[in-house]
Automatic annotation (TrEMBL):
Keywords: Membrane, Transmembrane, Transmembrane helix. Residues 119-206 form the M23ase beta-sheet core domain. It comes from Herpetosiphon gulosus. The lineage of its organism: Bacteria, Bacillati, Chloroflexota, Chloroflexia, Herpetosiphonales. This is M23ase beta-sheet core domain-containing protein. It comes from the Bacteria. It holds the Pfam family Peptidase_M23. The chain crosses the membrane at residues 12-30. The keyword Secreted does not apply.
Amino acid sequence: MNWYDLSDYGNNYKRGAVALGLIVVLFLLLNRPTTPTISAWRGENPSVAGLSGAAIQVGQGDTLVAPPGISSDQPWGNPVAANRVVMTQGYGVGSHAPAEVWGAIDLAVDGNGDGLADPAGSVGAPVRATMSGYIDITADSWPAGNHVWVIGNEYKTGYAHLSEFKVQDGDYVERGTIIGLMGSTGSSSGPHLDYQIWHNGVNQNPLNYHPLP
Ligand SMILES: [Zn+2]
Protein backbone atom coordinates (compact mmCIF):
# COMPACT_ATOMS: atom_id res chain seq x y z
CA MET A 1 0.00 0.00 0.00
CA ASN A 2 0.98 3.57 -0.40
CA TRP A 3 1.96 5.51 2.64
CA TYR A 4 -0.83 8.01 1.95
CA ASP A 5 -3.56 5.35 1.56
CA LEU A 6 -5.20 5.88 4.90
CA SER A 7 -7.96 3.29 4.41
CA ASP A 8 -5.44 0.47 4.00
CA TYR A 9 -3.42 1.82 6.81
CA GLY A 10 -6.56 1.76 8.96
CA ASN A 11 -7.29 -1.88 8.04
CA ASN A 12 -3.79 -2.97 8.84
CA TYR A 13 -4.00 -1.10 12.08
CA LYS A 14 -7.22 -2.96 12.91
CA ARG A 15 -5.63 -6.31 11.99
CA GLY A 16 -2.68 -5.44 14.16
CA ALA A 17 -4.95 -4.54 17.04
CA VAL A 18 -6.87 -7.82 16.70
CA ALA A 19 -3.61 -9.80 16.57
CA LEU A 20 -2.32 -7.97 19.62
CA GLY A 21 -5.58 -8.66 21.42
CA LEU A 22 -5.31 -12.38 20.66
CA ILE A 23 -1.73 -12.42 21.91
CA VAL A 24 -2.79 -10.73 25.14
CA VAL A 25 -5.66 -13.23 25.61
CA LEU A 26 -3.29 -16.15 24.94
CA PHE A 27 -0.76 -14.71 27.39
CA LEU A 28 -3.42 -14.34 30.09
CA LEU A 29 -4.67 -17.88 29.52
CA LEU A 30 -1.19 -19.37 29.65
CA ASN A 31 -0.27 -17.37 32.75
CA ARG A 32 -3.51 -18.02 34.58
CA PRO A 33 -2.55 -18.76 38.19
CA THR A 34 -3.37 -22.28 39.24
CA THR A 35 -5.65 -22.01 42.24
CA PRO A 36 -4.07 -23.79 45.15
CA THR A 37 -6.24 -25.95 47.35
CA ILE A 38 -6.56 -23.97 50.53
CA SER A 39 -7.63 -26.95 52.55
CA ALA A 40 -7.00 -30.62 52.69
CA TRP A 41 -8.47 -33.47 54.62
CA ARG A 42 -5.68 -34.82 56.75
CA GLY A 43 -7.86 -36.24 59.46
CA GLU A 44 -6.58 -39.73 58.84
CA ASN A 45 -3.11 -38.71 59.88
CA PRO A 46 -2.81 -35.81 62.31
CA SER A 47 0.97 -36.14 62.32
CA VAL A 48 0.91 -34.57 58.85
CA ALA A 49 -0.18 -31.40 60.57
CA GLY A 50 2.73 -31.61 62.97
CA LEU A 51 0.56 -32.93 65.77
CA SER A 52 0.81 -35.98 67.89
CA GLY A 53 -1.82 -38.61 67.18
CA ALA A 54 -3.89 -37.54 70.15
CA ALA A 55 -7.04 -35.56 69.70
CA ILE A 56 -7.10 -32.09 71.15
CA GLN A 57 -9.72 -31.64 73.79
CA VAL A 58 -11.65 -28.42 73.58
CA GLY A 59 -14.27 -27.25 76.00
CA GLN A 60 -17.67 -26.21 74.75
CA GLY A 61 -17.69 -22.47 74.65
CA ASP A 62 -15.24 -21.74 77.42
CA THR A 63 -12.34 -21.27 75.00
CA LEU A 64 -14.10 -18.19 73.66
CA VAL A 65 -13.77 -16.38 76.97
CA ALA A 66 -10.89 -14.07 76.26
CA PRO A 67 -8.47 -12.90 78.92
CA PRO A 68 -8.46 -9.26 80.04
CA GLY A 69 -7.03 -6.97 77.41
CA ILE A 70 -8.49 -8.85 74.44
CA SER A 71 -11.26 -6.65 73.10
CA SER A 72 -14.42 -8.13 71.60
CA ASP A 73 -13.35 -7.31 68.06
CA GLN A 74 -10.07 -9.19 68.36
CA PRO A 75 -10.19 -12.90 67.48
CA TRP A 76 -9.91 -15.30 70.36
CA GLY A 77 -10.61 -18.97 70.94
CA ASN A 78 -11.82 -21.94 68.97
CA PRO A 79 -14.36 -21.35 66.22
CA VAL A 80 -15.59 -24.95 66.36
CA ALA A 81 -18.10 -25.85 69.03
CA ALA A 82 -17.39 -29.50 69.80
CA ASN A 83 -15.88 -31.61 72.54
CA ARG A 84 -12.94 -32.93 70.57
CA VAL A 85 -11.53 -30.60 67.93
CA VAL A 86 -8.44 -31.60 65.96
CA MET A 87 -6.23 -29.57 63.68
CA THR A 88 -5.94 -31.48 60.43
CA GLN A 89 -3.54 -29.13 58.69
CA GLY A 90 -1.27 -26.61 60.32
CA TYR A 91 -0.41 -23.01 59.58
CA GLY A 92 1.81 -22.23 56.60
CA VAL A 93 2.23 -25.84 55.53
CA GLY A 94 0.82 -27.84 52.61
CA SER A 95 -2.01 -25.95 50.96
CA HIS A 96 -1.63 -23.20 53.60
CA ALA A 97 1.67 -22.07 52.11
CA PRO A 98 2.81 -19.43 51.53
CA ALA A 99 1.40 -18.23 54.84
CA GLU A 100 1.23 -14.59 53.70
CA VAL A 101 -1.39 -15.62 51.13
CA TRP A 102 -2.98 -18.89 52.25
CA GLY A 103 -2.19 -18.89 55.96
CA ALA A 104 -4.90 -20.78 57.82
CA ILE A 105 -5.46 -23.77 60.00
CA ASP A 106 -7.87 -26.60 59.26
CA LEU A 107 -10.04 -27.81 62.10
CA ALA A 108 -12.28 -30.85 62.24
CA VAL A 109 -14.01 -32.91 64.88
CA ASP A 110 -13.08 -36.23 66.38
CA GLY A 111 -16.61 -37.41 66.92
CA ASN A 112 -15.92 -40.93 68.17
CA GLY A 113 -12.94 -40.16 70.39
CA ASP A 114 -10.40 -42.29 68.56
CA GLY A 115 -7.98 -39.40 68.32
CA LEU A 116 -8.58 -38.72 64.63
CA ALA A 117 -10.83 -36.33 62.79
CA ASP A 118 -13.80 -38.01 61.23
CA PRO A 119 -16.38 -36.87 58.70
CA ALA A 120 -19.35 -38.07 60.74
CA GLY A 121 -18.36 -35.91 63.69
CA SER A 122 -17.35 -32.97 61.57
CA VAL A 123 -20.27 -32.44 59.20
CA GLY A 124 -22.67 -29.97 60.70
CA ALA A 125 -20.51 -29.01 63.68
CA PRO A 126 -21.41 -25.45 64.74
CA VAL A 127 -18.89 -22.80 63.66
CA ARG A 128 -18.70 -19.69 65.83
CA ALA A 129 -17.38 -16.21 65.25
CA THR A 130 -14.22 -15.75 67.30
CA MET A 131 -14.64 -11.97 67.32
CA SER A 132 -17.41 -9.44 66.97
CA GLY A 133 -17.89 -7.78 63.62
CA TYR A 134 -19.88 -7.55 60.43
CA ILE A 135 -20.74 -10.60 58.34
CA ASP A 136 -19.60 -10.74 54.72
CA ILE A 137 -20.91 -13.88 53.01
CA THR A 138 -19.74 -15.45 49.77
CA ALA A 139 -21.70 -18.52 48.72
CA ASP A 140 -20.37 -21.26 46.44
CA SER A 141 -16.99 -19.59 45.91
CA TRP A 142 -13.81 -21.29 44.78
CA PRO A 143 -11.71 -22.47 46.53
CA ALA A 144 -13.41 -21.45 49.79
CA GLY A 145 -16.90 -22.84 49.10
CA ASN A 146 -19.48 -21.24 51.37
CA HIS A 147 -17.39 -18.60 53.09
CA VAL A 148 -17.92 -16.07 55.87
CA TRP A 149 -15.76 -13.12 56.81
CA VAL A 150 -16.31 -11.51 60.18
CA ILE A 151 -14.93 -8.02 59.77
CA GLY A 152 -13.96 -5.68 62.60
CA ASN A 153 -11.89 -2.52 62.79
CA GLU A 154 -8.45 -4.07 62.62
CA TYR A 155 -9.12 -7.77 62.34
CA LYS A 156 -11.06 -10.01 60.08
CA THR A 157 -11.56 -13.75 60.44
CA GLY A 158 -12.41 -16.18 57.64
CA TYR A 159 -14.44 -19.38 57.85
CA ALA A 160 -14.45 -21.58 54.73
CA HIS A 161 -16.14 -24.71 53.36
CA LEU A 162 -19.34 -24.28 55.41
CA SER A 163 -22.28 -26.53 54.63
CA GLU A 164 -24.78 -23.92 55.78
CA PHE A 165 -24.92 -20.28 56.81
CA LYS A 166 -26.60 -19.30 60.07
CA VAL A 167 -26.24 -15.54 59.59
CA GLN A 168 -27.12 -13.04 56.90
CA ASP A 169 -24.83 -10.86 54.87
CA GLY A 170 -24.34 -7.57 56.74
CA ASP A 171 -25.34 -8.91 60.16
CA TYR A 172 -23.39 -7.73 63.18
CA VAL A 173 -22.40 -10.63 65.43
CA GLU A 174 -20.72 -10.97 68.80
CA ARG A 175 -17.93 -13.43 69.54
CA GLY A 176 -19.49 -16.84 70.06
CA THR A 177 -22.36 -16.37 67.60
CA ILE A 178 -22.88 -19.48 65.47
CA ILE A 179 -22.32 -18.29 61.93
CA GLY A 180 -22.63 -21.57 60.05
CA LEU A 181 -22.11 -25.31 60.07
CA MET A 182 -18.98 -27.21 59.15
CA GLY A 183 -19.01 -28.71 55.68
CA SER A 184 -16.89 -29.58 52.69
CA THR A 185 -17.90 -27.01 50.08
CA GLY A 186 -15.41 -25.60 47.58
CA SER A 187 -11.95 -27.07 47.21
CA SER A 188 -12.03 -29.49 50.09
CA SER A 189 -11.29 -33.17 50.34
CA GLY A 190 -13.36 -33.75 53.47
CA PRO A 191 -15.49 -31.88 56.00
CA HIS A 192 -13.49 -29.36 58.00
CA LEU A 193 -13.22 -25.67 58.77
CA ASP A 194 -10.48 -23.59 57.15
CA TYR A 195 -9.94 -20.76 59.63
CA GLN A 196 -8.03 -17.58 58.84
CA ILE A 197 -7.10 -14.46 60.79
CA TRP A 198 -5.97 -11.20 59.20
CA HIS A 199 -4.73 -8.15 61.11
CA ASN A 200 -4.60 -4.89 59.16
CA GLY A 201 -4.30 -6.92 55.97
CA VAL A 202 -1.55 -9.19 57.26
CA ASN A 203 -2.20 -12.90 57.61
CA GLN A 204 -1.84 -14.17 61.18
CA ASN A 205 -1.21 -17.58 62.65
CA PRO A 206 -4.51 -18.51 64.36
CA LEU A 207 -2.52 -20.61 66.82
CA ASN A 208 -1.41 -17.31 68.36
CA TYR A 209 -5.07 -16.55 69.11
CA HIS A 210 -5.84 -19.60 71.19
CA PRO A 211 -7.94 -21.68 68.79
CA LEU A 212 -6.79 -24.79 70.65
CA PRO A 213 -6.04 -25.27 74.36
ZN1 LIG B 1 -7.27 -25.03 54.92
